[in-house]
Amino acid sequence: MLQLIVCDHYEELSRQAARIVAKQVTNKPTSVIGFATGSTPVGLYQELTKMYQKGEVNFKQIRTFNLDEYVGLDKEHPQSYYRFMWENLFGKVGIEKSQIHFPSGIFQDPVQACNEYESQLKKEGPIDLQILGIGANGHIGFNEPAESFILNTHIIQLADKTIEANARFFRDKSEVPRQAITMGVGNIMNAKKIILLASDKSKAKAVQSVFSSIVDPRVPATILQLHADVSILVTNEVADLLKDLNLEQIVG
Fold it and tell me: What is the share, in percent, of the chain residues with pLDDT greater than 90?
């Protein structure tokens, strides 16, 4: 089931998302939470940090899984997703390092690296709440447009649009890794609940596709239509560009 939640602005979207995450952790302190990186969830992580500092939520017992990591970047690299999560959330809210799980971007054997993350997901999962962003091309995690869905953890060649979008985080576009290791869409769909955040109008077309009634691996996010519990949080800026949708029926 898809539910669209329209927020006035990015700050409200971040607060709404934080309330959903905090409720999950409060109701089940040992929750397994799937985290996403990128600019969109930064506000969410800031709000969760504030809630933690006020004593409104305790993250000590949660276990975490991140969607993806760049291939070739050590976890201490300034642009690694591990470093991103540690600086934006994990290092601020008392999460035990032993309970943080990431696919490794440094490996000798790519098959083994993927299998190891799959094993961790099976041992600790299923994920109770998965946080997602969405790419302008409809990618979720680093599941890029393709002819078929890949269900499990895998190595992906990043699309040119994704490299272009992520270049702003690097000194030069040539420094952006060309591959990533990512959860597959099957891993994402195994989560009990999913929240997807979209605050920029460039993501409106991708969000629209999720409500299209067409599941197409060339727009990976469309698979979310098959999940039982997905909340899509968008700003007014994005909602205003969602054409031909009966918002009265799907807005929560």
Answer: 83
